[in-house]
Design brief:
By secondary structure, the protein is α+β, with helices and mostly antiparallel strands. The chain is 34% helix and 30% strand. The protein has five helices and ten strands; from the N terminus they run αββαββββαβαβαββ. Strands 3-4-5-6-10-9-8-7 form an eight-stranded antiparallel β-sheet.
Amino acid sequence: MKRVLSIVMLLAMSMAIYAQKEVTKFLGIPVDGTKSAMIQKLKVKGFTYNATGDYLEGEFNGSQVNVFIVTNNNKVCRIMVADKSTVDEGDIKIRFNNLCRQFERNKKYGKTPFGDHMISDDEDISYEITVHNKQYQAMYFQKPEAEGLDEDSDEYKEKELDCFVNKSVWFTIGELYGKYYIAMFYDNEYNRAHGEDL
């Protein structure tokens, strides 16, 4: 009887630990599970699947985008959202800076301590990308879902550190034939390869 009770307690504890693990969400959908299940969930949100290119098309944050699903060991580990259309240098600066402002105003996100992400008006991004191989990136993380926890408590800070490491959301400027686009990444680091296949 003691053995059965011990096994039940062990299972209950492991379920509680698993339930506490928060994963990144894209449009409220956990970046987790199988690719086919994610495709179905995104279709419900209004995206259409392009079987030839193996991506989804739709609107996200006011822009037409293509959505790519990346898996590791048949589990979704990344959602990549890329602008469908390219724009010139002036427009990409505005778009990039607007996204930075949107993330910084959104209480669901925390900013990483890697400096100011904003691009100045006088920055020549074409020159910087071509000559200096500069990458324009902004990185944030989804804050913990910790209702009732004091943000100054050790428990909240531990959860926030875990989210900082495992629930990153970042974006970068991509270049295609002298025009530019934004690529955003919603990462679930729990489902990434951690050397288990070595």
